[in-house]
Design brief:
The complex is a heterodimer of chains A (503) and B (323). Chain A is mainly alpha-helical and 503 residues long. Chain A contains 20 helices and two strands. Chain A has a two-stranded antiparallel sheet with strand order 1-2. Chain A starts with a helix and ends with a helix. The relative contact order of chain B is 0.18. Chain B contains eleven helices and ten strands. Chain B has 323 residues and is α/β, with parallel strands linked by helices. The N terminus of chain B is likely disordered. In chain B, the strands form three sheets. Chain B has a five-stranded mixed beta sheet with strand order 2-1-3-10-4, sandwiched between helices. In chain B, helix 4 crosses helix 11. Chain B has two domains: 166 residues, Bordetella uptake gene, domain 1 (D-Maltodextrin-Binding Protein, domain 2, 3-Layer(aba) Sandwich), CATH 3.40.190.150; 92 residues, Periplasmic binding protein-like II (D-Maltodextrin-Binding Protein, domain 2). The chains are: A mainly alpha (503), B alpha/beta (323). At the A-B interface, helix 2, helix 3, strand 1, helix 13 and helix 15 of A face helix 1, helix 2, strand 2, helix 3 and strand 7 of B.
Chain lengths: 503, 323
């Protein structure tokens, strides 16, 4: 009962006029920043950090949390309407959001994204409220072998992600892993894979550079080629009644993905190594895996929109947990929030929940209120975004191109990345012509740089003995499940071949 | 429809309003665009915490008319950051928060072609000591017990720290050599991850900076055993120094701000003024005290001499490491 009383106090604090205003402004600004390709919650929080010195610390962190939430909702918008991931956390949303939009069902995709985000955020808030200290110890029990096992599991769920062509999927994963290894080796500090001795490669290949190249530029080229210059345009209509129908359909066809994303996203978010981007990609993989019709993923399945969107919201709440309880940021955005808290004189860490009860519960209360405000504001904006889609493709295509370039530049402010992005876009177009799935490459460039150092740290711990992944109580079961999942398609393939031989 | 448009405009207006830069009244050179505030480490570790703190003070006191934009480039023990800053085409708007990899990385990777003496000295904000920590559940309470424990484990005692050839590995290598210890060393990408894995008992000991370990120390999880500072630290009066244990050694991480090579004198003067104000601020002085850093103020010429001295020291330390 104690917790409920504290939470009620916290919500009352969040509903005070000043704080509520901060929430509404924060969510709106976050929504717009999240919708801009390339800019995500990290940029939003970093840009607006100074503003928070104008208000008391409580209101300040509430404001930043509201931006964080808003940006998570906003990321889906350009993913769906333009096919350019609005933020790294929304890349998985393009997989099914974009096909839906091309079928003229953009409003269904956007409504699904909004509702899934809301449910994901709410479930995560409840988990946070009830189990914060207990979950902090779960985060601590994840050492390098556990994190590596989890990454292995993520890859395993993705083997089934690119159609049913396993060899092409594996090629795509390997391609992403190689790209992810470019730059400096984290363990020895030595440079590697610096292609053509170009200094630009020393910084590594950014995930957004690949994602915007593949999904922004590659998708645009694909659409141009498919329509052969014919101005095909879908005319999505938007009415209140239509939205209500969409909401109903979203609930019916997206609940499974929402459910998976909410829990998995939160859990991955809690682990300090990961964050919302791996969380949303993994949730997409799992939702596809457990679906009865996995072949509809990538063709416009609402579950494929719901899973990553529920996951990125719930992971953002999850990644607050290690920051507040351990003082270790679970994502780049929380790293900036951490900086803000230090200047306000708060010491994040094991003592925060005891020493600063009012602050902590005010913040948790604001999560609930921000989430509710975000879903309402987002739903109100949807007609505007749909209206944008009415523009003919001849207008949209150059717009997508410009936004991709701007988004790619905004992330790193380096022209090198723009050229790389264009090359990836063209490469993606040809790979797509040959039916190579690209999502696994995008996943690999995110997870590779987490998996590789943890693999090597684990093997250092065990003096080179790989049994470390099987003998530890948490890592063991995860590794076994991952291996079964990886070899399952191979077994199926073998069996299919055998039956084919008999015929 | 009208309502949503108004919302949109309202949001934009709020966005513009809040990002509008403050007005500065100083004469002379002024930044004309946001300042690239590159950090030589990943998010969450000691260097990052300090950079964020400095940025916050600058914002709070409205010391710069354009914002400092933190830019984490921790790859390759800071090599990524050094290349980024030395290769910038806008040296007047590019500054770097450094740690000791400013000295060690160019030494270890001569092929990068980085000469740190070409960087522009701006401000030495303080030096950060190192402390040996163990988890309270280990039962170890003194440095002597620690040495005994490490020896009894025959090379299976696991310590974590930052990447190979970086600060933590130098401190641990010196200590292992001095006390004849056989330690298994696991490199991490930042001090934050190291502290977290000690808290989770994935590793057995660390040499985190006090700032990184403080939260866990105050919660009673971490036990400090030995300080690598010249004298005992006021915040940890009962912790002996390595000098008291008979070895003339101390090691600090520099927390300095430097400008890109080729920065104009006017711009350098502007940043020196800004960082002097930050150094003298109540906030920074309070931070130095609460996080156990020592102030070590130097002018530009002294900073360059200090760099030369540190390069020589690190050459010897790395040679001893076999690097």
């Amino acid at each position: 009962m104690d917790i409920l009383a504290l939470l009620a106090d916290g919500m009352l604090l969040a509903l005070q006029p000043l704080n509520l205003t901060m929430i509404v402004i924060g969510v709106s600004v976050g929504l717009l920043i999240g919708a801009m390709p390339g800019l995500g919650s990290v940029n939003g929080v970093a840009i607006l950090l100074p503003v928070t010195f104008l208000v008391p610390p409580n209101s300040a962190i509430i404001f930043l949390a509201a931006i964080y939430y808003g940006a998570m909702y906003g990321g889906a918008i350009s993913s769906v309407t333009l096919g350019i991931p609005g933020a790294s956390t929304a890349v998985a949303t393009t997989f099914d959001g974009r096909p839906l939009a091309r079928q003229g069902r953009a409003s269904l995709a956007l409504v699904t994204a909004a509702l899934a985000s809301f449910v994901g955020g709410t479930i995560a808030n409840m988990l946070f409220t009830l189990f914060a200290p207990a979950l902090a110890s779960v985060a601590l029990s994840f050492g390098p072998p556990e994190v590596f096992a989890l990454m292995l599991l993520a890859f395993a769920t993705f083997v089934g992600l690119g159609g049913d062509d396993i060899p092409k999927t594996i090629f795509s994963i390997c391609f992403g892993l190689v790209l992810g290894a470019v730059g400096f080796d984290q363990i020895s500090g030595a440079p590697r894979l610096v292609l053509f001795e170009m200094n630009g490669f020393l910084q590594g290949i950014g995930f957004l550079v690949l994602a915007i190249g593949v999904y922004g530029i590659g998708e645009m080229l694909w659409t141009i080629e498919q329509s052969r210059g014919e101005v095909s345009k879908t005319t999505p209509k938007m009415t209140v009644k239509g939205m209500a129908a969409d909401a109903k359909e979203a609930t019916k066809r997206g609940w499974k993905g929402t459910f998976v994303g909410s829990f998995l996203g939160f859990f991955v978010g809690v682990l300090p190594a990961a964050g919302a981007t791996p969380g949303s990609l993994m949730s997409y993989g799992v939702a596809k895996m457990i679906s009865r019709k996995p072949e509809t993923f990538g063709q416009g399945n609402p579950d494929g929109v719901a899973a990553p969107e529920a996951a990125n919201n719930s992971a953002s709440t999850g990644s607050m947990l290690p920051m507040l309880t351990l003082g270790i940021p679970g994502s780049p955005t929380t790293a900036i929030l951490l900086g803000g808290m230090v200047i306000w004189g708060l010491v994040p860490g094991p003592r925060l929940f005891v020493d600063e009860t009012e602050f902590v519960w005010g913040l948790i209360g604001s999560f609930y209120v921000s989430n509710a405000a975000a879903v309402l504001i987002n739903l109100a904006f949807i007609p505007l975004f749909i209206w944008m889609l009415r523009m003919p493709f001849t207008v949209l295509a150059p717009m997508i191109f410009v936004l991709s370039i701007v988004g790619g530049y905004a992330a790193t402010r380096d022209m090198f990345d723009i050229w790389l992005m264009v090359i990836f876009g063209i490469g993606a177009f040809f790979l797509r012509k040959f039916d190579y799935p690209l999502a696994p490459a995008v996943l690999a460039i995110v997870l590779g740089p987490i998996a590789e150092p943890t693999l090597r740290q684990s093997l250092l711990l065990s003096s080179g003995d790989p049994s470390i992944f099987f003998t530890r109580p948490i890592a063991g079961p995860i590794t076994v499940i991952a291996l079964i999942l990886i070899f399952l398609p191979a077994f199926k393939l073998l069996r299919r071949r055998r039956t084919a031989d008999q015929v | 429809m009208r309502v949503t448009k108004r919302h949109l405009l309202g949001g934009l207006a709020a966005g513009l309003l809040v990002t509008a830069p403050g007005f500065a009244f100083a004469d002379g050179w002024q930044p004309r665009k946001p300042i690239d505030f590159t950090i030589m480490a990943g998010p969450g570790g000691g260097a990052d915490q300090i950079a964020r703190f400095i940025q916050s003070v600058a914002e709070k006191k409205d010391l710069t008319n354009r914002p400092l934009v933190p830019n984490n480039k921790g790859g390759g023990s800071g090599a990524e950051a050094l290349i980024h800053v030395s290769g910038t085409n806008d040296p007047d708007h590019t500054i770097l928060v450094t740690l000791n990899s400013f000295f060690t990385t160019p030494l270890r990777q001569a092929n990068l072609g980085i000469d740190i003496q070409t960087f522009t000295p701006i401000a030495m904000m303080g030096v950060d000591p190192f402390v040996l920590w163990v988890h309270k559940d280990s039962g170890i309470t003194t440095f002597e017990e620690y040495v005994e424990e490490v020896k009894s484990m025959n090379g299976e005692f696991v310590m974590g720290g930052t990447g190979a050839g970086q600060e933590d590995s130098i401190v641990i290598a010196y200590m292992s050599d001095a006390f004849d210890l056989d330690i298994k060393y696991i490199p991490y990408d930042g001090g934050g991850a190291v502290a977290k894995d000690l808290a989770g008992k994935q590793i057995m000991a660390t040499v985190n900076n006090p700032a990184e370990a403080k939260g866990f120390y105050e919660a009673g999880d971490f036990v400090p055993l030995l300080a690598f500072s010249d004298e005992r630290m006021p915040a940890y009066p009962d912790v002996p120094t390595i000098k008291e244990k008979g070895h003339d050694f101390s090691y600090y991480n520099q927390r300095a701000v430097v400008g890109a090579p080729g920065m104009s004198e006017d711009a350098a003067a502007y940043y020196r003024d800004v960082f002097t104000q930050i150094f003298e601020s109540e906030e920074w002085q309070g931070y130095l005290e609460s996080e156990s850093l020592s102030p070590l103020w130097m002018n530009a010429a002294e900073q360059q001499d200090y760099w030369g001295l540190q390069v020589e020291n690190h050459k010897k330390l790395l040679a001893a490491l076999g690097e």
